[in-house]
Amino acid sequence: MKVYRYFYDSRFFMKLSGPFKQILTLNNLPLKGKLNDESLEVISNGGILTENGKIIQTGDFTLLKQKFPDSEIDWVEGEQIALPAFVDAHTHICFGGNRANDFAMRNAGKTYLEIAESGGGIWSSVQHTRQASEDDLVDGILKRINNLISQGITTIEIKSGYGLNAEEELKMLRAIKKAQTKTKVTLVPTCLSAHLKPRDFEGSSEDYLNYILDEILPKVKAENLASRVDIFIEKSAFQPEESKSFLLKAKELGFQITVHADQFTAGSSRIAVEVGAKSADHLEATIDEDIEFLANSNTVAIALPGASLGLGEPFTPARKILDKGGILAIATDWNPGSAPMGNLVTQASILATYQKLTTAEVLSAMTFRSAYALDLQDRGILAKGKKADFITYETDNFQNILYHQGSLMPKNIYINGEKIG
Fold first, then answer.
1. Are the CB atoms for 185 and 174 separated by under 8 Å?
2. How much is the pLDDT for 12?
3. pLDDT tens-digit profile of 270-322?
């Protein structure tokens, strides 16, 4: 696997990258609702001027070169297009072990409960992750990060949730924090101790949620390991009322909230909105009345088509969410069980085919709308003052990105205006 290294000059100077056949800025697009491709800003013969990790200006390459004659030129060879780097707003890439047998059993007709009862499912990943050392977890995270970088992803959310006790959850979050010191990609840690009640916990689900509030989250805050808290609301995990109480208490502790919602049964996306969650993720089982409720809020609907593909479940009703005026993001849900693919563009392209999403809607869902779900409004758009994370493809038309459904890979990846590779 290609290993990405980073080369930086300590001096601050303007750098002009180009000329690009096309620059797709994704600028001046609304945060909410449906988008048509005619609204996309496309700059021909474009240049991207950066300084100190920020975008100074985008525009015609020749004119920018004349206007800023002292800028360093980052010459682009051949026909390439540029657009904002992707944001993966939902992953579980900190884990130990492998669950290939789960996938084989599902395809052979076994149910989720049957697989869990036979030793598979989330509890299998919990056992493997507990057995892994912190350094083992760091190595695994970095390997998966390199895969995501190669796809053009430079901001990655990573959840805990395979430790399920104070010692092991903190180990996972410390591993994510350590991985951040070894990569220039932005990592956004999320505490998902409320993934499910562990089998070895003596007490009720409510007791376990109180254990998280009393024994895990204060340590997470003290060590600055995460500012976000997630919970899986589902019949097999945590019930709506106890989950709502838990989320409100987590907010009182100063955490942002996100929710695994409506994956198999409807109703929990409403709780996400009611508690002011940044996002409601999954939504494969969301019903029409809850779509409208969600769309009338600023809670981002994160579609996870990898989980639909991995489990053989329906896709998130992305078209309805957008038509009602909601905010749609698309993420990989990369995890060892239900979504092992980890290929964002492939998943998004397939979702677009089945949900009839425009190119503008899909690319926005993987850039600035996904960044908004992580409370990062400084990226995902190529405009003045934004973080200079962008990617290029060796093609003459940005439409080819989704057309090739993930087989067309980025040519170059830029983080803070610096090319990595």
1. no
2. 53
3. 999 999 999 999 999 999 999 999 999 999 999 999 999 999 999 999 999 99
Q: What are phi and psi of 323, to 5 degrees?
A: -65, -30
Q: How far apart are CA 78 and CA 21, in angstroms?
A: 9
Give me the amino acid identity at 218.
Answer: P
CB 251, CB 276: distance < 8 Å? yes
Q: How far apart (Å, rounded) are the C-alpha atoms in residues 31 and 380?
A: 11
Q: Rounded distance, CA 26 to CA 43, Å? A: 11
Task: Find residue 303's DSSP bridge partners.
Answer: 330
Measure Cα distances from 251 to 51, 227, 255 in Å. 37, 10, 5
The H or E element spanning position 293 is helix 288-295
To which H or E segment does residue 212 belong?
A: none
Distances (CA, A) of 174 to 92, 120, 131, 214: 15, 26, 15, 19
Return the exposure string of 206-238: e unless at least 16 CB atoms fall within 10 Å of the residue's CB, then b: eebbbbbbeebbeebeeeebbebbbbbbbeebb
Query: Residue written as tokens 């439409």?
Result: 399
What's the residue count for the chain?
421
Q: Are the beta carbons of 62 and 91 closer than 8 angstroms?
A: no
Question: What is the C-alpha to C-alpha distance for residues 177 and 194, in angstroms, rounded to an integer?
Answer: 20
Query: Does residue 305 sit in helix, strand or coil?
Result: helix
**Rounded Cα–Cα distance for residues 371 and 288 (Å):** 26
pLDDT of the residue at 264: 95
109: Cβ–Cβ under 8 A, 6 or more apart, which residues?
none
At 42 the three-state DSSP class reads strand
Q: What are φ and ψ of residue 6, in 5° steps?
A: -125, 130
Q: How far apart are CA 261 and CA 254, in angstroms?
A: 21
Burial of 119 (0-12, 13-18, 19+ CB in 10 A): exposed
Q: What is the pLDDT of residue 10?
A: 34
Q: CA separation (Å) from 299 to 47, 50, 112?
A: 34, 32, 29
The residue to which tokens 């920018």 are assigned: 64
Write down the H helix ranges in 284-343.
288-295, 305-311, 318-323
| Residue found by looking up tokens 């390991």 in the block | 225
**Among all chains, which residue has been given the structure tokens 């479940």?**
313
**Which residues of the chain are modeled with pLDDT < 70?**
1-12, 421
Which residues on neighbouring strands pair with residue 353, listed in sequence order? none
